[in-house]
Amino acid sequence: MRSPARSLLTVAAVTGLLACEGSGPQFAPVNLYLKDAPSDQIASAQVWISRAYLVPGGFTITDTPQQFDLLTLQNGVTALLGNNDIPVGDYAQLRLVVDSALVTLADGATFADGSTSRMLKVPSGSASGIKVGFAGQVHIDPAGADIVVDFPVAENFVFQGPASSPHGVLFTPTLRGTVQ
């Protein structure tokens, strides 16, 4: 036979569980797009992105490795980098893990990371990822969000050496994002 106190505890526990049901984290769909701006000096800027995630929490939007030629993403053209259901809330930043890059100039010269003759460096690209700047917190509400990352090639790839014949390229990310 159960004691009245034990029965009351059981009822309270069941009531508590029922009240909590559905109160876990709420998720919303997030789509992540890339776009670019024109560059006179660069004919092609290819990047290999293996992951995009929101911080804090490290919530992954995509972890499918993809390659993009950024200069094909101009004049309103965007490319879907990935999508996922993400917990609703505020995030400090987005990070893109860029495994490698290849830049081809208008004159045909190419620069690749890992190359010894015409080096292209992607600092932090494949480690913690490249930070995407926003005008404040990234807010994901229950309706979801489209995040667009502007990857302005002319601002991101800084040439080293004389302008007429650079000997290297440093990827200095100035990526900007907007939530739509």
Topology:
Elements: H1 4-20, E1 27-35, E2 42-55, E3 59-62, E4 66-69, E5 79-87, E6 89-91, E7 93-105, E8 110-112, E9 119-121, E10 130-133, E11 138-140, E12 145-150, H2 153-156, E13 157-160, E14 168-171, E15 175-179
Parallel strand pairs: 1-12, 9-14, 10-15
Antiparallel strand pairs: 1-5, 2-3, 2-4, 2-7, 6-11, 7-8, 7-10, 12-15, 13-14
* SSE-based structural type: mainly beta
Fraction in helix: 10-25%
Major sheet size, sense and barrel closure = 10 strands, mixed
Mean pLDDT: 82
Identify low-pLDDT runs: 1-20
Order of helices and strands: HEEEEEEEEEEEEHEEE
Separate helix tally = 2
Oligomeric state: single chain
The radius of gyration computed from the alpha-carbon positions, rounded to a whole number of angstroms, is 23 Å
The separation of the N and C termini measures 61 Å
Tally of DSSP β-strands = 15
Instruction: Write down the overall geometry.
Output: elongated
Beta strand %: over 45%
